[in-house]
Design goal:
alpha+beta, 4-stranded mixed sheet, two-stranded antiparallel ribbon
Amino acid sequence: MSFFPLPASDKAALEEGDRFTPRFDGAGLVTAVVTDAGDGELLMVGHMNEEALKLTLETGIAHFWSRSRGTLWKKGETSGNLLHVEEVRTDCDQDAVWLKVAVGGHDATCHTGRRSCFYRSVRIEDGAARLADDGSGAKFDPDAVYGASD
Amino acid sequence: MSFFPLPASDKAALEEGDRFTPRFDGAGLVTAVVTDAGDGELLMVGHMNEEALKLTLETGIAHFWSRSRGTLWKKGETSGNLLHVEEVRTDCDQDAVWLKVAVGGHDATCHTGRRSCFYRSVRIEDGAARLADDGSGAKFDPDAVYGASD
């Protein structure tokens, strides 16, 4: 039996009710947006299956579903940069969650060592989409933390 | 031919390069996180196919792919609450974008009339996941704007 009730078919119950009935997509996932509880900076976007969402709510430590590895993922288990969840929110149609977190360890969420995964801006230049790095530096050495082959 | 180049197979190019090569998922979508460019508030999470992403970058008005309707969606076309994009960012593995926007019209992004779609917090109570409304009020009347049947 599922921990979360099935989503309401009634739109008013889904949008205005007090029951959390997450709407997992065809792959069994909801989108999870992670911001810093202190200054609101967007840190990362991940995905959660039912188990990851339940563990996050129950333990207060963010868990995700790694789409690339196909495994449950306790974020920060290797690096020590656990995400301590201060608040979870959901949106009107309950297919996304927002985690406000305090980041442990190096205060860095991105596996590249940076604080946030969103370190590059996008713009069209001469008809092509180009990226510009914001210069945010690494707060830890990924090779030392994950091993050089990762 | 696609507007965006195919994603680099080389991880360093994907993570550190200056070419925007969005990694659309199996459904042809990337996740789009929308925050207010002024105070950083998380307003909504949506999805973009290639056309929506290209139009957003070219016009400076946020476009999405509506998964529920299966159509391109110029957000705010009915309500007047267009999202004027001040900056677009992407994340380390280029499967998500972050839009910093100025909201037009009623300064409300949610179709329920609220400023943000994330008006409810989630917590476990007596073994069940419950929602608590933050009391943010409607900034416009959805029935009047969309029609009572929507």
